[in-house]
Specification:
The complex is a heterodimer of chains A (499) and B (222).
Chain A lengths: L16 H17 L4 H29 L2 E3 L4 E3 L1 H30 L5 H23 L3 H19 L5 H36 L8 H6 L6 H19 L7 H8 L2 H30 L3 H21 L5 H22 L2 H32 L10 H4 L1 H15 L5 H16 L4 H23 L15 H15 L3 H16 L1
Antiparallel strand pairs in A: 1-2
Helix pairs in contact in A: 1-2, 1-4, 2-3, 2-4, 3-4, 3-10, 3-13, 3-19, 4-5, 4-10, 5-6, 5-10, 6-8, 6-9, 8-10, 8-11, 9-10, 9-12, 10-12, 10-13, 10-19, 11-12, 11-17, 12-13, 12-17, 13-15, 13-16, 13-18, 13-19, 15-17, 15-18, 16-18
Chain B lengths: L1 H26 L3 H25 L4 H27 L12 H23 L10 H17 L3 H23 L4 H29 L4 H10 L1
The chains are: A mainly alpha (499), B mainly alpha (222).
Chain lengths: 499, 222
């Protein structure tokens, strides 16, 4: 058996990038909680997000130099699987912060969002990033649960930021369903501790990933399967898998747009990351594909149901949130198949989906501000009204629908090849789901971007830079994947596939 | 040895009390009675923790027991009580239509819990391992309560009773999680409780009601 971790490095690194990356959002959040001037808060938010991104670059360079390693007494660790997710998270967090400045300024000036709620928004945004990064880097499955819960709680208050009836109802639903899901996940975690504590004794070692992987074959398979059932439902709720997905469209639809972008682009990734980590452990312990089959089932169900539900939407953000469920389903299938190729496809898809979907939400936010509504039949003639927004939405939709040469096409193509190798019959539901979603996306997007401008349209100052950056990156990943990233994907895919 | 057996018996009794309280929570109509039972659950949980502390060698469990009594037996129920009193909803009665059906489902869940937990219990050699089935059942019953209730306050109590049940599972199955995890979880629950409080005021000012069905209907109309 290959142990996924190397021994902790003894040499001291010049700057501890771990502490830097994790402390930056925490300090930023505290500072923003007490920043009364809105204009200052916008810049501070960007500065701290940039610092966090810098830290994650340092962390990534460390991994390139010395490989997987532990830090801070083994409480944290990075390997090929989580390091690119850390960089991705802090990158999208930075671009979202840049985007959020002009967007929230509009909400604050034109729509009368009070100052103290803007403060709440900024503080919770940074706290959310902290929870995300903690969840990705922690070596302890208990802490990982706490981190995901923290990130969830931070976003609950962001969803109800506007205090409209619909937003409060949506946030409540999100809170309750997420709470129930996360409780099941904790139950699964306790079950794992139940069997691992018979090996390691009553200590933190029994909850430590690196220790668990090294001794996975000694864990009781019956308990592990049981635990996985609870973890699947629990973390599956947070991934947004059908039938536990009902909170997701409401939460994405009602919150401020930057929040929708990070919910779709980042939070769902963390939940999936957690689930896949557990799947690796369960596979090692049971030596069977049971966990993978369960994931394929839920993934396919999510793909099909989300693709169909997409057609019934009237609200543009809700429509794209169903597209997120569809893509999370695809990734769950990829990791469920579990061959190195499928996992590679899943990891690539995770990256490009985060980039493209958050980019789409950025354009959607501006489109809704320009038309004064999120209802799709009120949004008309975007290209004539504001070519940047219109083309952005069209390009983003093409990218997410899987048009070449964007990265989504590459990852879906790889996923199809992997599926043909292992589960050929799965191609039928996969293709059906993708085609239905494809039709839905263009059916709604075409009338919104082409044609005459709606009469009620107003001019907005759109911040297009983050949008272009995201789509360019997605395009780049579709044309050629940089060697170091591809190396990480391969390593991580081998880890996930071989345990 | 005699004392050990006595404590084991006491833990079993506490476990059955937990299950009983879960049913009571599920069946109560009056808001204040639900709150009383919730507080009782916290106290039973603290007693169980204390009993387990006596027979295990983890001294931190005494601390856990004290924390549980303070947080779940007193502080959280008191906070909820204050909110209920401030909003003048303490006389509210929640109409529950399908009580017999709910109870049948609850019974079924208990059976399922025993079915899935018994094979696992056999693996452990801890003195408290036979509580796992009941602990699983209390988790499920808490969820059932969250699903069947329509008022925000009772849904929250359902949420917190799941939290209690999870703590009970950890105590029974593994003599508690490591300290850092337990403190982290307690911290999250506390944040959640604060957010609940915020939500109640938001709902009150926006909807003038804490009835989730009413709120969702109003939100759809907007």
């Amino acid at each position: 058996m290959i142990s996924p971790m190397t021994a902790p490095i003894s040499e001291q690194l010049p700057i501890n990038w771990f502490s830097f990356t994790l402390l930056s959002p925490l300090i930023g959040g505290l500072l923003l909680a007490f920043t009364r001037q809105a204009e200052k808060a916008f810049s501070i938010n960007v500065i701290f997000s940039a610092a966090t991104f810098l830290g994650s670059i340092g962390l990534a360079l460390d991994v390139l130099q010395v490989g997987a390693h532990e830090a801070l007494n083994g409480f944290f660790f990075v390997d090929a699987y989580n390091v690119f997710l850390v960089s991705l998270t802090s990158f999208v967090a930075l671009t979202t912060a840049i985007y959020s400045g002009p967007y929230m300024r509009f909400e604050w000036r034109e729509r009368g969002l009070p100052n103290h709620r803007l403060r709440l928004y900024h503080a919770m945004y940074q706290l959310f990033i902290f929870g995300m990064l903690l969840g990705f880097t922690t070596n302890n499955i208990g802490l990982m649960w706490i981190a995901l819960e923290l990130a969830t709680l931070a976003t609950v208050l962001l969803v109800s930021l506007y205090r409209t009836p619909a937003s409060i109802a949506a946030a409540w639903k999100y809170f309750m369903l997420a709470g129930m899901g996360i409780a099941l996940a904790l139950f699964g975690t306790i079950l794992i501790f139940f069997t691992s504590s018979t090996i390691f004794g009553h200590s933190n070692a029994a909850l430590t990933w690196t220790m668990l992987y090294a001794h996975a074959s000694e864990l009781q398979p019956t308990v592990m399967i049981m635990a996985f059932a609870f973890l699947m439902i629990g973390y599956g709720t947070k991934i947004g898998l059908v039938p536990m997905h009902t909170w997701l469209p409401d939460a994405h639809g009602e919150g401020p747009t930057p929040v929708s972008a990070v919910l779709s682009g980042l939070l769902l990734n963390l939940a999936l990351y957690d689930l896949v980590r557990f799947k690796m452990l369960v596979d090692l312990s049971t030596g069977s594909d049971t966990a993978g089959h369960v994931m394929i089932f839920f993934g396919t169900l999510s793909l099909l149901v989300a693709a169909l539900s997409l057609h019934k939407q009237h609200d543009i953000k809700r429509m794209f949130s169903f597209s997120s469920i569809e893509h999370m389903g695809l990734m769950t299938i990829a990791f469920g198949i579990g061959t190195p190729l499928a996992c590679y496809a899943g990891l690539l898809h995770m990256t490009v989906h985060s980039l493209v979907k958050s980019g789409i939400f950025f354009t959607v936010g501006h489109a809704a501000q320009a038309m004064g509504s999120q209802q799709m039949d009120r949004i008309r003639g975007l290209i004539r009204h504001h070519p940047g927004i219109g083309w952005g939405l069209l390009i983003g939709t093409a990218a997410i629908a899987g048009f070449p040469p964007f990265g989504v096409f590459t990852s879906e193509f790889l996923l199809f090849s992997a599926t043909l190798d292992s589960y050929p019959w799965l191609i039928a539901p996969l293709l059906t789901g993708l085609l239905i979603a494809f039709a839905g996306l263009f059916r709604f997007v075409q009338p919104m971007v082409y044609g005459e401008v709606a009469e009620h349209a107003i001019t907005v100052k759109a911040n297009m830079v983050p949008i272009y950056v995201h789509f360019t990156l997605a395009l780049w990943l579709g044309l050629s994947i940089p060697a170091f990233l591809s190396g990480w994907y391969k390593q991580a895919a081998a880890l996930i596939a071989g345990g | 040895m005699n004392q050990l057996m006595f404590i084991q018996e006491a833990i079993s009794i506490a476990a059955s009390l937990m299950l009983l309280i879960s049913f009571a929570l599920l069946a109560q109509h009056r808001l204040l009675s639900v709150l009383h039972w919730f507080s009782a659950q916290g106290i039973v949980l603290a007693i169980t923790t204390l009993l387990v502390a006596l027979i295990s060698d983890h001294d931190e469990l005494y601390f856990s027991a004290a924390m549980t009594l303070l947080l779940k037996g007193a502080l959280l129920p008191w906070l909820l009580w204050r909110i209920i009193m401030k909003m003048h909803i303490h006389r509210e009665v929640e109409p529950m239509v399908n009580m017999p059906v709910t109870m049948m489902i609850a019974l079924g869940l208990v059976l399922v819990s025993f079915h899935i937990a018994l094979p696992i219990e056999a693996i452990s050699d801890l003195a408290t391992h036979n509580t796992l089935a009941i602990a699983t059942a209390t988790v499920f019953l808490g969820m059932l309560m969250m699903i069947t209730r329509k008022k925000a306050v009772t849904q929250v109590i359902g949420f917190l009773s799941i939290e209690n049940a999870l703590f009970f599972t950890a105590i029974g199955a593994t003599h508690g999680m490591p300290m850092i995890v337990e403190i982290g979880v307690a911290f999250d629950v506390l944040i959640a409780a604060i957010i609940f409080g915020l939500f109640f005021t938001q709902m009150r000012s926006t909807f003038d009601s804490l009835d989730i069905e009413e709120i969702e209907a109003k939100a759809k109309r907007r």
